[in-house]
């Protein structure tokens, strides 16, 4: 193909490639709010996701296809149908939801053991930091035993989807990670 054509592609995405990413987490964690903060830099009114939302998001020369999947109990078994070709998992935690931390920890380790996610990076977003009683990223990291994860590159980032705080930093880690290894 002519060079003008590939230049055009480079304007869109660094290599013209679309990087598939999934946003998972329990219901009410803030996944859909985060997806639309990334897309619109704004807060949208959400209702519980049935199925999924997907948006194309450009971040620092990389083009992402972000899939946001519903987190309700009955929908969790279908998460694995989205795993094919996923390069990164964004795990969103409601940092005030202490009761269900063990539950999402189990979901996390089940996900990491899945064949399709062998080389996926993991970004944990400790969301709802604006709320009183929110666990810190360090606390969640400890509860999740993140330092024991040696076969995936991972990072945990505190954030607030309503203000957007921390969301940029999380994606910055991810894009650095992805460009460093390719
Ligand atoms: N205070 C506060 N509320 C938030 C934050 N992020 C999301 N929310 C609220 O949490 C509720 C659930 O947000 P959603 O984005 O719909 O949650 P979800 O993870 O997509 O939920 P499912 O689609 O059911 O899996 C909404 O009322 C959001 O406005 C945050 O950082 N702080
Ligand atoms: Mg949702």
TrEMBL record:
Binding site for Mg(2+): 32, 49
Protein residues bound to GTP: 25-32, 71, 127-130
One Pfam family of this chain: Arf
Xref: SMART domains: ARF, RAB, SAR
GO cellular component, one term: trans-Golgi network
Family matches, as Gene3D superfamilies: P-loop containing nucleotide triphosphate hydrolases
Signal peptide boundaries: none
Gene Ontology molecular function: any one: GTPase activity
Family annotation (PROSITE patterns): ARF (PS51417), RAB (PS51419)
CDD domains reported for this sequence: Arl5_Arl8
Keywords attached to this entry: GTP-binding, Magnesium, Metal-binding, Nucleotide-binding
InterPro entries in the cross-refs: P-loop_NTPase, Small_GTP-bd, Small_GTPase_ARF, Small_GTPase_ARF/SAR
GO biological process: one example: intracellular protein transport
Recorded family membership: Belongs to the small GTPase superfamily. Arf family.
Protein name from the UniProt record: Uncharacterized protein
């Amino acid at each position: 193909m002519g060079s003008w054509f590939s230049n055009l592609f480079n304007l869109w995405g660094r290599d013209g490639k679309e990087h598939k990413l999934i946003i998972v987490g329990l219901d009410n964690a803030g996944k859909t709010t985060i997806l639309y903060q990334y897309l619109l830099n704004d807060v949208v009114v959400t209702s519980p996701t049935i199925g999924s939302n997907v948006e194309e998001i450009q971040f620092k020369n990389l083009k992402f296809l972000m899939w946001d999947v519903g987190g309700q109990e009955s929908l969790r078994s279908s998460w694995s149908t989205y795993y094919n070709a996923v390069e990164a998992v964004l795990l969103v935690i409601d940092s005030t939801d202490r009761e269900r931390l063990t539950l999402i920890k189990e979901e996390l380790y089940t996900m990491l053991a899945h064949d399709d996610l062998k080389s996926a990076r993991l970004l944990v977003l400790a969301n709802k930091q604006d709320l009183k009683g929110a666990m810190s990223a360090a606390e969640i990291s400890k509860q999740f035993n993140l330092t024991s994860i040696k076969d995936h590159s991972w990072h945990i980032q505190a954030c607030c989807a309503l203000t957007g705080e921390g969301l940029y930093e999380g994606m910055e880690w991810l894009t650095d990670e992805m460009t460093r290894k390719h």
